[in-house]
Design brief:
single chain, Lambda_DNA-bd_dom_sf, two-stranded antiparallel sheet, alpha+beta, Cyanate Lyase, Chain: A, domain 2, 48% helix, 149 residues
């Protein structure tokens, strides 16, 4: 019996197949009828996919059943420390370090004592033209969870 392919190994195969076939993340998300940010995160190993989703995307990428199997596994969410040094990823950390306390205060003022869920959560990314250079717009959309005692 062969071992199950790790989520990272499956992600590496997905990335290679996507690049070699000239497919965008948006095209892969469209194939499985899922939001592009969620689908990209799932294909990079951060969410489990259904068997149907994994089968469809792997057929498009011409990847075998071992990748289909891996894409359905529960992940260990988060990221290892190495990617955190990437400038794009680090800027999100920096932005939350600077604006996190203000966002927390504003959430408490607007909603009360609680948090924004990162489980009942959506995230989207878009481009907004600007005369000084295009803007990256990232939207976090999490359910408010009040503390109940």
């Amino acid at each position: 019996m062969t071992p199950i392919l790790s989520k990272q190994a499956a992600a590496d195969l997905v990335v290679a197949a996507r690049i070699r076939r000239g497919l965008s993340w948006a095209k892969l998300a469209e194939e499985i009828d899922a939001p592009v940010v969620w689908a990209t995160a799932a294909l990079l190993g951060q969410h489990p996919m259904t068997k149907e989703q994994a089968t469809r995307v792997c057929a498009l990428l011409e990847l075998d059943a071992s990748v289909v199997e891996s894409l359905q596994l529960q992940p260990s969410r988060g990221t290892d420390p190495a990617p955190m040094a990437d400038p794009t990823i680090y800027r999100f950390t920096e932005a939350l370090a600077v604006y996190g306390p203000a966002l927390k205060a504003l959430i408490h003022e607007e909603f009360g004592d609680g948090i924004m869920s990162a489980i009942n959560f959506r995230v989207d990314i878009s481009r907004r033209p600007d005369p000084e250079g295009d803007r990256v717009v990232v939207t976090f959309d999490g359910k408010f969870l009040d503390y109940k005692w």
